[in-house]
Specification:
The chain is α+β, with helices and mostly antiparallel strands. It has five domains: about 5-155, Jelly Rolls (Sandwich), CATH 2.60.120; about 165-255, Immunoglobulins (Immunoglobulin-like), CATH 2.60.40; about 275-495 and about 505-535, TIM Barrel; about 565-635, Immunoglobulins (Immunoglobulin-like); about 640-735, no CATH class. A hairpin with a 5-residue loop joins strand 20 (about 235-240) and strand 21 (about 245-250). The longest helix has 17 residues, at about 380-400. The termini are far apart.
Length: about 725
């Protein structure tokens, strides 16, 4: 009989790069911690790009009761980013990769004497290196034992536990939609000669060969796993005569992708519309509990998403379980990201093996992601291409039932040979936020689809940062206002709805998340593109835009701008998001008007003083208070000079024979002296955006895009104040063209 004992309690933690002997000696002086645990919960979220990246030791004594059983295995569900495991002073295993499960057989090194204490020591590392991914990315690489740790007791004859962290059982359903049947193949790996399988009330006992057993079951009138409407799950079980047993849930469904019609689920069009998620939380880092995962899923269901991109690594098994239970179609990927490392090929392959082995049975997973923005800081050379070909072949060899994909950085040319490798493609586009205009996103998809009509294309990332403290009646790119983020996503929603061939869309991101290298938008150490704040306490206005478009079940209206209370304009815009077809607006109890429409409803009202505003649609309603103030509230403005920069420049007398900030970056850089000034300024600004900005700054495609933009637009996006702009303009005015 299998017994699983959780050992999250009673650990001693030492944040020190010391030897095994020293760690054991000084363990009693360490910090008492309970798992899940990360040593970067604070310094990985406070900015400065100075969080501890090094070694941490976890020491624990195992009791006789905990180690009772014929065979004892240690199960570690997440050790970031690498780990070595020691028992009673001897190394028993090591693991490279911070996001997957690994196990080790402790049996032979256990002291079985009565009342004996066995010393378990685990060194965990998140330091920089050139072999284990990720190394360059726009998120914090938390260190620690941040998921559950268990002891698994099994009889001598048992199912496989060690190889690639396998669950020991694999289920492959093949569905015939016309006949409404499914042929379910169940496989297991064990050191026994006979296995009994059970599926849907039917049992089969089969002989094993070379440690592998296999059986087929036919399910008539199969109940399909049918997305968010009906995520039905079956269970498959495997048993040995010894009493060991493993089981897994599975779903019977058919995924397909069409280059013209988009994604299909079970033979019908099923556009994938959703968000991306990182696995961290304000104040806790990545050391999440099941309750944290469940709370995230409740927010995902509230917004109405039917798909998730679980970025940029393997997530916790309990979260994939939640996706299975809630019908969420998943993009699962490994952290092969931003910068290709010549010495990291084996690590990409091992992380992919573990991802597929451990997650194969989850019906929610539709695609395996090969990489993310890998060409941002690396050229498309033969080594990078070969790495992707090997990953693609590995995925198809291990799992011929699913498609492969990759998320490409927006600077990657659409004729790049890397796009020919995966089954389907997707792009991360940030036109209208980092560079360019919103309409360039539309132009990109139209050009791609026209040039490659037989390729499936998706929209794997898009977003704009917003700090809910900032507001404006005239929002613009780079102001970090809640209003601009909402306008940005309104544009993207229209883009998506007008292009049904886009097989999947994933807004970046559902939640704000830690990126310790960032220092922008009024916050340190956070990427603020989330539709929900890092602590999950506040849903930004853009969240309700998608809820209005995707959640058709729960009638609601949402008044935008609740946090924009003090308004200096004589007339103000009142925007309402709703999933209803009609919305009425009341001001101080008086009906202002009723609008028919879809998703976005806009009214304009005069501001005379303090007003109570109510939006109503049937039984759904929302209210807020706003007031007229004599001057703009400066607490709402991130860059207090940005709004007046253009007017200020127009009033200045500038010599057109000399350079100015109104010239394009490309024009300025063509001049040696002017170019040197700009390069020095941009190097400083790039450093404030963290490692990724530094890594991608020399990307040729990015440089070409930036060359077409005026310097003033880039300066405003970077948050340069009026003093800085004036100073730079004076310097450029001293340089003749």
């Amino acid at each position: 009989m299998r017994k699983i004992t959780n050992i999250n309690q009673n650990w001693q933690f030492l944040k020190a790069d010391i030897t095994l002997e020293q760690a054991i000696t000084y363990a009693a002086r360490g910090e008492s911690v309970t798992l899940p645990h990360t040593w970067n919960a604070v310094d990985g979220q406070d900015g400065g790009n100075d969080y501890h990246r090094g070694t941490g030791w976890y020491i624990r004594r195992l009791t006789t009761e905990e180690t009772a059983g014929e065979k004892i295995f240690l199960e570690i569900n997440g050790a970031a980013m690498s780990a070595e495991v020691y028992l009673n002073g001897k190394k028993i295993t090591e693991h490279r990769g911070g996001y997957s499960t690994f196990r080790a057989d402790l049996t032979d090194l256990l002291d079985r004497r009565e009342n004996a204490e066995n010393v378990l020591a685990i060194s965990v590392h998140n330091e920089e290196n050139d072999t284990v991914y990720p190394q360059k990315a726009d998120f914090t690489f938390y260190g620690g034992l941040y998921r559950n740790v268990n002891l698994i007791a099994v009889p001598a004859e048992h199912f496989e536990l060690v190889k690639d962290g396998t669950p020991g059982i694999k289920v492959t359903p093949t569905v015939n939609l016309d006949q409404k049947t499914a042929v379910v193949t169940v496989e297991s790996w064990q050191n026994a000669s006979e296995v009994t399988f059970e599926v849907n009330g039917e049992t089969q006992t089969v002989k094993a060969a070379d440690g592998h057993a296999r059986a087929e079951f036919v399910i008539e009138n199969v109940h399909l796993w049918d997305g968010i409407e009906d995520p039905y799950l079956y269970t498959a079980t495997a048993r040995l005569v010894s009493g060991d047993m493993v089981s897994t849930r599975f779903g019977c469904r058919v995924y397909a992708c069409d280059p013209e019609k988009g994604f299909f689920l079970n033979g019908r069009s099923y556009p994938l519309r959703g968000v991306s998620r990182h696995q961290d939380l304000k104040g806790k880092g990545n050391a999440l509990s099941y309750e944290d995962h469940k709370a995230d899923m409740e927010i995902i269901r509230e917004i109405g998403a039917n798909t998730l991109r679980l970025a940029h690594y393997q997530h916790a098994q309990e979260f994939y379980d939640l996706c299975d239970e809630n019908g969420i179609v998943v993009w699962a990927e490994i952290p092969y990201i931003t910068m290709h490392m010549a010495n990291g090929r084996e690590n990409t392959l091992s992380q992919m093996k573990e991802l597929i082995t451990q997650c194969y049975n989850h019906p929610s997973i539709a695609v395996w992601g090969l990489s993310n923005e890998i060409t941002a800081a690396s050229p498309v050379n033969e080594d990078l291409l070969e790495n992707h070909r090997l990953l693609n072949e590995l995925c198809h060899r291990m799992d011929p039932t699913r498609l492969t994909t990759m998320a490409n950085v927006f600077m990657l040319e659409i004729d790049s040979p890397i796009l020919e490798i995966p089954d389907v493609n997707s792009y991360n586009l940030y036109f209208g936020w980092y560079l360019g205009d919103l309409e360039q996103n539309d132009e990109f998809f139209d050009e791609y689809h026209a040039k490659y009509p037989n390729r499936c294309i998706g929209f794997s990332e898009y977003g704009a940062d917003a700090n809910p403290a900032y507001h404006s009646p005239h929002p613009e790119k780079g102001d970090y206002t809640e209003e601009f983020q909402a306008l940005y996503h309104e544009h993207m929603l229209k883009l998506i709805e007008a292009r049904p061939y886009i097989w999947a869309t994933h807004a970046w991101n559902l939640f704000d998340f830690a990126a310790d290298g960032r220092d922008e938008g009024g916050k340190h150490g956070e990427n603020q593109k989330g539709l929900v704040t890092f602590d999950r306490s506040l849903r930004k206005d853009a969240f309700y835009l998608y809820k209005a478009a995707w959640n058709r079940k729960d009638a609601f209206v949402h008044l935008c701008g609740k946090r924009y209370v003090n308004r200096a304009e004589e007339e103000t815009e009142i925007k309402v998001y709703s999933n209803q077809s009609s919305v009425s607006l009341y001001v101080d109890g008086t009906l202002i008007g009723t609008q028919e429409g879809k998703t976005v409803f806009t009214f304009r009202i005069p501001l005379l003083g303090e007003h109570l505003v109510r939006a109503v649609s049937g039984s759904a309603e929302d209210s807020m208070c706003i007031r007229r103030v004599p001057e703009p509230d400066e607490s709402y403005i991130f860059n207090k000079a940005a709004a007046s920069v253009t007017n200020w420049f127009d009033a200045e007398e500038n010599d057109p024979a000399c350079f100015s900030i109104m010239d394009t970056l490309g024009e300025i850089r063509q001049h040696p002296k002017a170019g040197a000034v700009i390069d020095a300024m941009m190097a400083k600004r790039t450093a404030e955006r963290g490692d990724v900005a530094e890594a991608v700054k020399d990307n040729p495609a990015l440089q070409r895009m930036m060359a077409r933009m005026t310097l003033v637009s880039l300066l405003k996006q970077a948050g340069v104040d009026e003093v800085g702009m004036k100073g730079l303009n004076r310097i450029l005015q001293g340089i003749k063209k």
